[in-house]
Design goal:
- By secondary structure, the protein is α+β, with helices and mostly antiparallel strands.
- The protein has 7 helices and 9 strands, in the order βαααβαβααββββββα.
- Strands 1-3-7-6-2 form a 5-stranded antiparallel sheet. A two-stranded antiparallel ribbon has the order 4-5. The protein has a two-stranded antiparallel sheet with strand order 8-9.
Length: about 220
Amino acid sequence: MLTVHYPGIVAIKFQMVTPVSGPGAVKDLAEHILGDEEKQAAGLGLGLTKVGALAEILGGQGRHPKWLGRGWSGEISADPTDSVQVSDALTDGARTQTKVHAWSFIFACNKGVSLLAAADAEVAAAVAEAMELAVAEYVRVLEANCVVRLGRSGCDRVGVAGLKVWSVCHAASAAGDPHRHAHLIVSANAPTVDGRRGQIDGRGLLARHAKLADAAAQFVMEREL
C-alpha cells in the first residue's frame, strides 16, 4: 500500500448535502456533473489545449459514473452516463406530490491531497482507489442508518433495505485545477426492511446520518493513505 505522508490535515475537507426537488432538477444536476470539462473551462477563458492536457494528467473528470447501493430491484439497465436515464432511474416510483426526489452529496479531499495526486501518477492511483473505497463506505453507512417514516404522522420509523445511488468521482474542478471530490445522488424513495416503500427521513439524514457517513469516509481515506 502506498502511504501518502501529509501530516496535520484530514484527507477529506468538507461535505455538502442538499435536497433535489423534481425529476427535471435531478436530470439537470446529473448533466452538470457529467459536463465536459473542456467546454466548462472554455467558458472561463482557460483554453481547450491547456485544459485538455491538464485533464489528461488528472485522469479526467466524470469518466466512470456508476450505480451503487442495495435499493435496486434486479439488474440496472439504465445508462449511468446519460443524465435523462439517471433521473428516470433515481425518481422511478416517486409519488407525484413528492417535494424531494433525491439527495445530493459532495465530499472532497483536502487541497494538499489533490495537489499531491496531480503531481505524481502513483499517488493519483492511490488517492483514486481510496476515494472509491470511501464512497462505498459512505453509501454503506447511509444504508445502515437511514430510515423511512411511515404510518400516521410518520410515527413508524422503519430502516431502509437499501438505497439507489449514482456516483461520480472527479479529479479536478470545472476550472481545471486539482480538486479530488465525489458526487453522489441518492434517491429519496427507498424500500424498507419490512417490504414497504417510502421517503427517506430527511431530518435524520441531515442531523445524524450524513455526518456519520462523512466520518466513516474520512476514516477510510486516512486509513488508505
